[in-house]
Amino acid sequence: MASNRGNIDPSTWDPALDAVIAAPDHHKVLFENDRLRVLEVTLQPNDEEPVHHHRWPSVFVFDAIKPPIYDFAPDGTQLPPNRDVIQAVQSWDGKGCLVVHMAPQPAGRVLNGSDQTLHGIRIEMKV
User: Fold this and answer.
1) Which residues contact 40 (CB under 8 A, 6 or more apart)?
2) Most buried among 13, 38, 83, 90, using CB within 10 Å?
3) pLDDT along the chain (127 residues), means of 10
4) Could you give the angle at the alpha carbon of 23 between the alpha carbons of 20 and 25, nearest 5°?
């Protein structure tokens, strides 16, 4: 699997690494048309997603998430905790839903290091 981290144009990212194709146990399509794709995302405690990407900007609404959440590059390097979801979880007060506006995400994988299932709805805006 090729890494997409060095290529900043999401339209050129490997379609085989699309989240729904590469990590189907964690990403379920609830709705899709030519402008939007709505995914249900679930990650059990201590589970890790396969390497995948999200080529479109999105809004991610979490109704269940608890730190620690770890973000890794395809080569296994842990990414800094200043990225979209990781930073939002660290500053969240734990009340209500956590809403995160996200840029396209190059290939990577997430590990749910908590004892709670991560669950949310990701609304991807096709551009």
Assistant:
1) 27, 28, 30, 119, 120, 121
2) 13
3) 62 96 98 98 98 97 93 92 81 90 94 96 95
4) 95
pTM for the whole structure? 0.89
Please choose, from the candidates 110, 124, 121, the residue with its C-alpha nearest in 3D space to the C-alpha of residue 10.
124
